[in-house]
Write a structure and sequence with these properties.
The chain has helices at residues 13-19, 22-34, 39-46, 50-62, 102-114, 140-167, 190-194; strands spanning 8-9, 66-68, 81-83, 89-90. With 202 residues, the protein is mainly alpha-helical. The strands form 2 sheets. Strands 1-4 form a two-stranded parallel ribbon. The protein has a two-stranded antiparallel ribbon with strand order 2-3.
Length: 202
């Protein structure tokens, strides 16, 4: 029987501060993908110094985002880490200090939108990068229905990938990141509306 998809909800300010560092976001994502790992494993996967990864792991542990997995250790000196949830974590707009984790995500999104291929992990011919911006007139009820459908789709794929990973752990699965944003367009100020950059023929 397939277990329910249950990402860990980030609720503490200390957790948000720990996640504000882009390297720690990468480490936690890699740790979720591997289910458990040592600092050396993560350092090799992310091409980072092992001592730097160890420091970031301790920071994540202090914030309560990861815990040690002594059952996976080879001996008492062997430190193996695992995430609080094997389904990863979730940051919502209601999370305290959510703005702290947005800059690494916005940097990723900017690179995705302008097609900076060198910014991404993996070879271009072996990965997929898709970005789409669209404007749709919606009622509040329609917007809520669309958001619910996208959320359900994300959950189904998360369970599907998790089960496939468990059934075939030897298959390479590069980490992908997905962001869904839905909201009304920004209100332009008078100065922005009259500036040359805001006019189509500028």
């Amino acid at each position: 029987m397939t277990e329910e998809y249950r990402p860990f909800e980030v609720t503490e300010v200390s957790m948000m501060r720990a996640l504000a560092h882009p390297v720690r976001q990468q480490i936690l994502a890699e740790l979720v993908g591997r289910r458990h790992a040592r600092a050396a494993d993560l350092a090799g996967a992310l091409d980072l110094p092992a001592n730097s990864v160890s420091f970031h792991l301790r920071t994540l542990a202090k914030a309560g985002l990861i815990v040690e997995a002594p059952e996976r250790a080879r001996d008492r000196r062997d430190r193996v880490w695992k995430p609080l949830s094997l389904d990863g974590y979730r940051v919502s707009k209601n999370s305290p200090e959510a703005r702290l984790v947005t800059e690494p995500v916005l940097r990723w999104l900017r690179a995705l939108l302008v097609g900076e291929a060198d910014e991404f992990l993996g070879e271009p011919q072996e990965t997929v990068r898709i970005s789409n911006i669209s404007q749709v007139p919606l009622t509040k009820a329609e917007a809520e229905e669309l958001a619910a459908e996208v959320d359900e789709l994300g959950k189904r794929w998360a369970v599907r990938v998790r089960d496939a990973r468990d059934a075939d752990p030897g298959t390479a699965r590069p980490l992908y990141q997905a962001v869904f944003a839905l909201g009304p367009m920004l209100r332009n100020s008078r100065s922005e509306a009259g500036s040359p950059a805001s006019r189509p023929d500028a």
